[in-house]
Amino acid sequence: MTRRPLRLRRSVLYVPAANGKAVAKSPTLACDAVIYDLEDAVAPAAKEEARERLRDHFAAHPESRHERVIRINALSSEYGPEDLLAARACRPDAILVPKVDVPAEVADVADMLAETDAADAIRLWAMMETPKAILNVARIAEWGETPGSRLDCLVVGANDLAKDLRLPGPGRDALKPLLMQLVVAARASGLDVIDAVFNAFRDEGGFAAECAEAAGMGFDGKTLIHPLQIEPANRAFAISPEREAEAASIVAAFDMPENREVGVINLDGRMVERLHLEDARRTLALAAMQRGT
Ligand SMILES: CC(C)(COP(=O)(O)OP(=O)(O)OC[C@H]1O[C@@H](n2cnc3c(N)ncnc32)[C@H](O)[C@@H]1OP(=O)(O)O)[C@@H](O)C(=O)NCCC(=O)NCCSC(=O)C[C@H](O)C(=O)O
Ligand SMILES: [Mg+2]
Question: Which DSSP state fits 66?
Answer without folding.
Answer: S
